[in-house]
């Protein structure tokens, strides 16, 4: 999709990586940034790359659960952005379906605060809602689906996308009714988009997968993990397989450890009842972080076709043994008496959380990939709520220099860091001579910060990419059934043991880095944290 854009970038005289020290930065030179000389119309390039399988074909996008939070906060805003930018087929219609008695105007008012509409776009927004409608109906009776199908058929022969923004408890009845009443006819296709959670453990996940497989083909099912739509997650494959410098060292000979982190600075804040049912392992680690791990660890696929990539990801998952509780740290945040506002409230102070709950809000887990490339290299997954910052990143720490000739303690390990959010960036932490008369070493970085290097280019939202992929039929960034099964195989024994034994999580203060025992576990598995260097967002 971005091929033409990348080709134009390659043809331009672009500046090199910025090299910066912790307390300043070296000048980039007299290069004039490409975006300042010529603004590429990236959207037009995307439009040229889209193929919808038949000119003039109509498309209907159905949002099941249109009255819910996900629909108003993510799906309707995303559909609006794609419509605004001309990235959906010309004859595309949108239908919301839910049990609530409401109108399309009600939907509009609920979604509007999240749609980021400029004054100059209000007429376009009116046009968008003219191709929207809403139908109220039951999830378990065919009458409402017959009404939905009638509305779809009024658009003519069309391709159909059904987005299930629904609780898993109604998946079975909804998909049965879709299969019986609402499938496309003739040469037109149907695609089903399913949101997580995909079950609670291996058994329930397999039950859901078997149910869907009995109704739809695998190529019709799009299991969405929105982290796979993020810019820097998608960049992992390019960094790995399009840069020769990484090939010789991307293995157990060069890498000491890999840390994949997800940190949130806020707690459950009144939503603890839902969180307590699933927990942070199911919410973040078993899906988002494990998917990132597969992209870091996978072998080079034969092509960039969806099946080739997903085959390699499955091979990685098959090489991982179930997580052991001995290699896990569980934490739960408590109120910080020195904090402000919500920071004074601990997890158990949330009135929606069951009294005495031992559900962890922080987890560090060590996984080992047992194959020739990664034998002995720990993959450390960390995620938590109510921490000191918002951050998601991949930190690849390389091994120590053999035969270090410099003063003891000066030389630190090299690290390649892929910062997923916020402030997307790729930087390589390395050593350089301290400026001046001394011959000491100093930590510095080769830094590609996206908001500096591509400052005139707006990165699309993850949902924009993924919904666009559904239209184009690309399943590269969606989870296949065997991927899902292997992921649950890795975490189900741990989840069941935690639920059975209810080990008491370690307390950590709201706004801290998490429990110190997490750092101790990382150190035990060959990750060195010195705290001597911190990446700073480059100044514009």
Key features?
540 residues; alpha/beta; 11-stranded mixed sheet; 7-stranded mixed sheet; 16 helices; 18 strands; disordered N terminus; cytoplasm; G6P_DH_AS
Q: Could you explain the architecture of this structure?
A:
With 540 residues, the chain is α/β, with parallel strands linked by helices. The chain has 16 helices and 18 strands. An eleven-stranded mixed sheet has the order 2-1-16-15-14-13-9-12-11-10-18, with helices on both faces. Helix 8 runs parallel beside helix 9. The protein is globular, with a radius of gyration of 25 Å.
Question: What's the short version?
Answer:
The longest helix has 26 residues. The protein starts with a helix and ends in a 16-residue tail after the last helix.
What is the number of helical segments per DSSP (H or I, 4+ residues)? 16
Structural class: alpha/beta
Mean pLDDT over all positions: 84
Widest beta sheet: strand line-up: 2-1-16-15-14-13-9-12-11-10-18
Poorly predicted segments? 1-47, 49-55
Strand composition percent: 15-25%
The helix content is: 25-40%
Radius of gyration: 25 Å
**Number of DSSP strand runs:** 18
Cα shape:
globular
> Main sheet?
11 strands, mixed
Q: How widely separated are the two ends?
A: 29 Å
GO molecular function: glucose-6-phosphate dehydrogenase activity; NADP binding
Catalytic activity: D-glucose 6-phosphate + NADP(+) = 6-phospho-D-glucono-1,5-lactone + NADPH + H(+)
EC number: 1.1.1.49
Protein name: Glucose-6-phosphate 1-dehydrogenase
């Amino acid at each position: 999709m971005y091929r033409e854009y990348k080709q134009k970038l390659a043809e331009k005289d672009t500046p090199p990586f910025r090299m910066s020290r912790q307390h300043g930065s070296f000048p980039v030179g007299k290069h004039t940034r490409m975006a300042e000389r010529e603004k590429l119309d990236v959207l037009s390039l995307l439009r040229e790359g889209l193929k919808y399988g038949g000119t003039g074909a109509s498309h209907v996008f159905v949002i099941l659960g249109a009255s819910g939070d996900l629909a108003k906060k993510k799906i309707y805003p995303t559909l609006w952005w794609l419509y605004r930018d001309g990235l959906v087929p010309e004859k595309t219609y949108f239908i919301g379906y839910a049990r609530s008695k409401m109108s399309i105007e009600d939907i509009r008012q609920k979604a509007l605060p999240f749609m980021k509409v400029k004054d100059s776009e209000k007429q376009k927004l009116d046009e968008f809602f003219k191709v929207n409608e809403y139908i109220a109906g039951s999830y378990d009776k065919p009458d409402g689906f017959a009404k939905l199908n009638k509305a779809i058929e009024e658009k003519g022969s069309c391709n159909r996308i059904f987005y299930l923004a629904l609780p898993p408890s109604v998946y079975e009845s909804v998909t049965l009714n879709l299969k019986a009443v609402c499938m496309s006819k003739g040469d037109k296709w149907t695609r089903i988009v399913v949101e997580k959670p995909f079950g609670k453990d291996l058994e329930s996940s397999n039950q859901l997968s078997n149910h869907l497989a009995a109704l739809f083909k695998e190529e019709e099912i799009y299991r969405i993990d929105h982290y796979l739509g993020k810019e820097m997650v998608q960049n992992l494959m390019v960094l790995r397989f399009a840069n020769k410098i990484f090939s010789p060292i991307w293995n157990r000979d060069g890498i000491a450890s890999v840390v994949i982190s997800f940190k949130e600075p806020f707690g459950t804040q009144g939503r603890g009842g839902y969180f307590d049912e699933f927990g942070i392992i199911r919410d973040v680690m078993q899906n988002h972080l494990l998917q990132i791990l597969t992209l870091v660890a996978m072998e080079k696929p034969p092509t960039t076709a969806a099946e080739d990539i997903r085959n390699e990801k499955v091979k990685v998952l098959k090489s991982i043994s179930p997580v052991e509780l001995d290699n896990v740290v569980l934490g739960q945040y408590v109120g910080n008496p020195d904090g402000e506002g919500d920071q004074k409230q601990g997890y158990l102070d949330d009135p929606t959380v069951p009294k005495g709950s031992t559900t962890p809000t922080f987890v560090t887990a060590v996984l080992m990939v047992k194959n020739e490339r990664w034998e002995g290299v720990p993959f450390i997954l960390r995620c938590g709520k109510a921490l000191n910052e918002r951050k998601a990143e991949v930190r690849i720490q390389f091994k120590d220099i053999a035969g270090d000739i410099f003063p003891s303690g000066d030389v630190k390990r090299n690290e390649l860091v892929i910062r997923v959010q916020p402030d997307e960036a790729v930087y390589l932490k390395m050593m350089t001579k301290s400026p001046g008369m001394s011959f000491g070493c100093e930590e510095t970085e080769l830094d590609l910060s996206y908001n500096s290097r591509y400052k005139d280019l707006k990165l699309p939202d993850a949902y924009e990419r993924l919904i666009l992929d559904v239209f184009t039929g690309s399943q590269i960034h969606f989870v296949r059934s065997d991927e899902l099964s292997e992921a649950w195989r890795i975490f189900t024994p741990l989840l069941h043991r935690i639920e059975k034994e209810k080990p008491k999580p370690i307390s950590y203060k709201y706004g801290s880095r998490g429990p110190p025992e997490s750092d101790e576990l990382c150190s035990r598995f060959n990750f060195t944290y010195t705290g001597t260097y911190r990446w700073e967002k480059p100044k514009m």
